Amino acid sequence: MKLSLFFWLLRLTVAVILVQTLYFKFTTSEESVYIFSSLGIEPYGRIGTGVAELITVILILIPRTLLFGAIMGCGVMVGAIFAHLFVLGIEVKNDGGTLFILALITFLCCVILVFKERTRLMNLLN
């Protein structure tokens, strides 16, 4: 029971973080436009990333599709982490590294969820 609650908390953590960032992506907030302009993929990258994050949230909250959502979340967050490390820097527009930390937290939650579902993953790969 406690372990099940822990995994639900991980899923909710991912969902809350991603849904919160969706608002900024879809409302063309100054920070989001700056980030995706710096990456050279504004506006399509911003909107596409927002759509990918929305799909990730939906998949991660449905028990049958948890594995696919967690894998997708890992992929999206690897992109965000690499963007911070190689283009944007850890701190973006004086945020104190908050966006980078949220990307790391989301990535780690998704990795743990993929590991939890490793048996299903192995069955799919065989």
UniProtKB/TrEMBL annotation:
The keyword Transmembrane helix applies. It is a multi-pass membrane protein. The chain crosses the membrane at residues 43-62, 67-90, 96-115. Keywords: Membrane, Transmembrane, Transmembrane helix. It is found in: Membrane. The keyword Transmembrane applies. Signal peptide: none annotated. One of its GO terms (cellular component) is membrane. It comes from the Bacteria. Pfam families: DoxX_2. This is DoxX-like protein. It comes from Flavobacterium limicola.
